[in-house]
């Protein structure tokens, strides 16, 4: 059974940093592209970042570019999101989501974690 | 403001069919057959319902179908059931600097 489990959320002051983690199980993480998607309280979904299976390509939403860094450790079945210079508007539930199998084409997220809440407030 | 435009709400009675639209541009919905739809119940993670415009993942009811015409994609749910009441989001790949975009979401109410 595919499972994604996020951790690392919490309360942080504006300008602070936080590192989110996503533990993957039930599939070969090394074969899949992965994403982070967030949802502000009471709002819609927003794609945040993407990393290819080999970490060769990383993409970011304009709203987080230069502040967030995505990474992965396939040997440890883990995905991470380092968030620096946090702003109040970064407050959201952050979901880890599985993307396409490597060398495939398309755009969808077929498995999601339950999310971890990040609150940026003074 | 979301990159893809969805109606804020739709409603229907049990057994009826409803359609949710998702309007983008020639850089996203209109450019690729890479539109997906997600169902989200309150407090839960989103669930993939449709991918590549019209394909259903294994385990998703055939009451859910997707289509696209020009820059507008659509999700149709037939034979509405109480359990279909949820928020629905479309998403599309885009050729812009942002890799992908979501719609603002549509709240489906089953009357």
Can you tell me the overall shape of chain B? globular
Shape descriptor of chain A: globular
Number of strands of chain A: 11
Mean pLDDT of chain A: 96
State the helicity of chain B in percent bands: under 10%
String of helices and strands of chain B? EEEEEEEEE
How can the largest sheet of chain A be summarized?
Answer: 7 strands, mixed
On the 0 to 100 scale, the average pLDDT of chain B is: 95
Radius of gyration of chain B in whole Å, from Cα?
A: 13 Å
Low-confidence stretches of chain A: none
Class derived from helix and strand content of chain A: mainly beta
Keywords, separated by commas or semicolons:
heterodimer; A: 122 residues; mainly beta; B: 111 residues; six-stranded mixed sheet; three-stranded antiparallel sheet
Write the layout of secondary structure elements.
The complex is a heterodimer of chains A (122) and B (111).
Chain A lengths: L2 E5 L2 E3 L5 E8 L6 E8 L5 E7 L6 E3 L7 E6 L4 E6 L8 E10 L9 E2 L3 E5 L2
Chain B lengths: L8 E4 L5 E6 L11 E6 L6 E4 L13 E6 L2 E6 L8 E8 L6 E3 L3 E5 L1
Parallel strand pairs in B: 1-9
Antiparallel strand pairs in B: 2-6, 3-4, 3-7, 5-6, 7-8, 7-9
What does this structure look like?
The complex is a heterodimer of chains A (122) and B (111). Chain A starts with a strand and ends with a strand. Chain A has no helices and eleven strands. Chain A has strands at residues 3-7, 10-12, 18-25, 32-39, 45-51, 58-60, 68-73, 78-83, 92-101, 111-112, 116-120. In chain A, 0% of the residues lie in helices and 52% in strands. Chain A is globular. Chain B has 111 residues and is mainly β. Chain B is built from no helices and nine strands. Chain B has strands spanning 9-12, 18-23, 35-40, 47-50, 64-69, 72-77, 86-93, 100-102, 106-110. In chain B, strands 1, 3, 4, 7, 8 and 9 form a six-stranded mixed sheet that branches. Chain B is globular and about 40 Å long. The relative contact order of chain B is 0.34. The mean pLDDT of chain B is 95. At the A-B interface, β5 and β10 of A face β3, β7 and β8 of B.
């Amino acid at each position: 059974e595919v499972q994604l489990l996020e951790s690392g959320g919490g309360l942080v002051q504006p300008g602070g940093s936080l590192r989110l983690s996503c533990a993957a199980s039930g599939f070969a993480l090394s074969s899949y592209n992965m994403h982070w998607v967030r949802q502000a309280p009471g709002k819609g979904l927003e794609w945040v970042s993407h990393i290819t299976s080999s970490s060769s390509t990383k993409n970011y939403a304009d709203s987080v570019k230069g502040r967030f860094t995505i990474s992965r450790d396939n040997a440890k079945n883990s995905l991470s999101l380092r968030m620096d210079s946090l702003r109040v508007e970064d407050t959201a539930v952050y979901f880890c989501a599985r993307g396409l199998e490597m060398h495939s084409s398309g755009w969808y997220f077929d498995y999601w974690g339950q999310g971890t809440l990040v609150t940026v407030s003074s | 403001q979301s990159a893809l435009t969805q109606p804020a709400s739709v409603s229907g009675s049990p057994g009826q069919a409803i359609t949710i639209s998702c309007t983008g541009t020639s850089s996203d919905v209109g450019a690729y057959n890479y539109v997906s739809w997600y169902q989200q119940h309150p407090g839960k993670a989103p669930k993939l319902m449709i991918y590549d415009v019209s394909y259903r993942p294994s385990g998703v009811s055939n009451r859910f179908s997707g289509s696209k015409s020009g820059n507008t994609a659509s999700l149709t749910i037939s034979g509405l059931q109480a359990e279909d009441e949820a928020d629905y989001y479309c998403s599309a790949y885009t050729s812009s600097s942002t890799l992908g975009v979501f719609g603002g979401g549509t709240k489906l109410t089953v009357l």
